[in-house]
Amino acid sequence: MQIQRSRERISVEIPIVVTTVLDSLQGVIVDLSEGGAQVTGCTLPPKSQCQIDLDGYSVFGTVRWSEEDRMGIRFLYELTEGPLFEKLAIAKAARRAPVTFQPRMQPMAMSGGGFGRRTG
After folding, report:
1. Is the dihedral of CA 31, 33, 39, 45 positive or negative?
2. Which class for 35: exposed (0-12), middle (13-18), buried (19 or more C-beta within 10 A)?
3. Which pLDDT value is given to residue 16?
4. DSSP character string of 35-98
5. Residue ranges of the domains in the chain?
6. I want to staple 14 with a disulfide (CB 3.0 to 4.6 A). Which of 29, 85, 99, 103 is the partner?
7. Percent of the chain scoring above 90 in pLDDT
């Protein structure tokens, strides 16, 4: 079953710290939108309140689902500023940037002498 989402999810790789009342865990955001994130490398029980810390800035959220090594966190307030929002904006821009074609250099034909030698 495909879940209809209101925000576009962007693949990223952002190391963060997930903090609760009792613990601080290292994790990596692998999927990000203005409304939430998928975090790998750590897990908390569903419905846990937590905060994501990045560069001295905190985003508060609730764990919506949890598996063995990853979890989904819904933010209490949509991202509109701060380092996490900036990283999301950069990832979106990179995703939408046109890919320019760069032709490959054709290997030069070698005529008997070997690498770096001229003959004839």
Report:
1. negative
2. middle
3. 97
4. TEEEEES----TT-EEEEEETTEEEEEEEEEE-SSEEEEEESS---SSHHHHHHHHHHHHHHSP
5. 10-78
6. 29
7. 69
User: Which pLDDT does position 21 carry in this prediction?
Assistant: 93
Interstrand relation of 36-40 and 10-19 (parallel, antiparallel or unpaired): unpaired
- Model-level pTM greater than 0.85? no
Q: How far apart are CA 92 and CA 115, in angstroms?
A: 45
pLDDT of residue 64: 98
Token couple for 82: 């701060």
Choice between 1 and 107, residue whose per-residue pLDDT is larger: 107
**Residues 6 or more apart in contact with residue 49 via CB below 8 angstroms:** 20, 21, 60, 61, 62
Q: Please state the φ and ψ torsions of residue 7, each to the nearest 5 degrees.
A: -125, 145
Q: How large is the average pLDDT for residues 27-34?
A: 97
Looking at domain 10-78, does it have CATH number 2.40.10.220?
yes
